[in-house]
Design brief:
- There is one protein chain.
- The chain is elongated and about 60 Å long.
- It has one domain.
- Helices cover about 0% and strands about 65% of the residues.
- By secondary structure, the protein is mostly beta strands.
């Protein structure tokens, strides 16, 4: 059983007892979170797809960790013009463990 839900403008695939990293939420470690913008739910009987969301479906999760991802380097370069720019970026995330899928 899995569900596809939306959080922070991005879509995530959630399975029961799975841990996923989503964009940072303003919650503490150990808090429970409910996502109600569920786009699709696959149960053993079949796939339910919403237009745009599935009625009555929700994904329940518990916050496991908050942190920052590995640093990525953004390097811009134009040959023969002495142009170089180096930027780094670390994305904040919240890791949640899916405790239940209702739908």
């Amino acid at each position: 059983m899995y569900a596809i839900f939306e959080s922070g403008g991005r879509q995530y695939r959630a399975e029961e007892n799975g841990v996923i990293r989503i964009d940072k939420l303003e919650v503490e470690v150990g808090d429970k979170v409910t996502f109600d913008k569920v786009l699709a739910v696959n149960t053993g009987e079949g796939l339910a797809v919403g237009a745009p969301y599935v009625e009555g479906a929700k994904v329940e999760a518990q916050v496991v960790e908050t942190g920052r991802a590995r640093k990525i380097i953004v390097f811009k370069y134009r040959p023969k013009s002495q142009y170089k720019r180096i930027r780094g970026h670390r994305q904040d995330f919240t890791a949640v463990r899916v405790t239940g899928i209702a739908g």
